[in-house]
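Section 3.1: Structural characterization of target chains.
Under the original work plan, the team committed to producing a structural model for every single-chain target entering the pipeline before any wet-lab resources were allocated. The record below documents one such target. The sequence was received from the expression subgroup and is listed exactly as submitted; it comprises 118 residues.
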Amino acid sequence: MKTGLFALIGLLLFTGTVLSAGGKAEKTPADWASVREEDKVMVEGKVRQVGNAPFSQIVITDDRGNDWYPDEEGMALLKRFEHQKVKVTAKVHLKAMTLPNGTELAAQRILINLKLEE
């Protein structure tokens, strides 16, 4: 009986997490590790330029040190905020990353339809 109750509670908690991740933008900063394709997220962090010319990119680095990569439109919007903290909402696209030797890396978190929050 207790096992069934714990299973039901676990299922309800899991379902609630899935529903909150897929629908409206989260009210708390997104968890980099658990975000999925097409999730709507809120990201808070510092805008930085990474890489070397001509291959430099704009990223938002959150408080945990995770990088979120805006799409081209988002980069154009965020360029003027370099070295500043921002809060944005966006939809996530996961871009697979593989090294030339075949080693798979964690997927790059690309932010699309990025909107700057107040």
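Confidence is low (pLDDT under 50) at residues 1-23.
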